[in-house]
Amino acid sequence: MQHHHPLTLTLTTLFIFLLFTFSSSHEDLIHSSCLHARYPTLCLRTLSNYSGPADTPLDVARAALRVSLAHARRASHYLHTSNGGASSTSSSKRQRAALSDCAELVADSVEELRKSLEELQHLRPETFRWQMSNAMTWVSAALTDGDTCLDGGSVRLDVKRRVTDLAMVTSNALYMINRLGQGGPGKPVPHSRPGLSVKN
User: Fold this and answer.
1) CA distance 98 to 80
2) How many folded domains does the chain comprise?
3) 199: left (phi over 0), alpha (psi -120 to 50) or beta
4) Residue 138 CB: number of other CB atoms within 10 A?
5) pLDDT along the chain (200 residues), means of 10
6) Is the pTM higher than 0.90?
7) How many CB atoms within 10 Å of residue 50?
8) Contact present, 34 and 40 (Cβ < 8 Å)
């Protein structure tokens, strides 16, 4: 029969307790962060599946931005390859023009979201407000680009679906950044880990 030293049992119990507490805190933070987002169910689904750090409000804002950037890159790739999945013979001239405009706008969104994420990865206490303002401006611009694409007319259903999906995750990301900005600078770590409003 194997005997365990009492200290070993105590340390094991403590480790399990801390692991459970960490996991619960992680889930609680994601839940509380998503609760009042514009698309809470989507927010919970995308951030719960996020594999990177999400242990502080700053982590959650970065995670939301990374999700949005990933969606933007996928949409941009879709729009730039194979004419967005349709042959030129099956698309009207107007649809092809709308697709070209959307492709350019989504490419702009990729760059704007990338710049916003870069800003959040290099926050400094002395420039926190200015950097948060920059991040919100760029994400807002990405939302405007999505609106402009959808307002262009003759937008195919497959394109509309992808741009709307991008708009929803980007709207959630903007909420997270705004929420972080309202919380004040707190203690942003200078060298911490890197990692479309939808019309009703």
Assistant:
1) 13
2) 1
3) beta
4) 22
5) 51 38 63 94 92 87 96 96 56 84 96 97 93 97 96 88 97 96 53 35
6) no
7) 18
8) yes
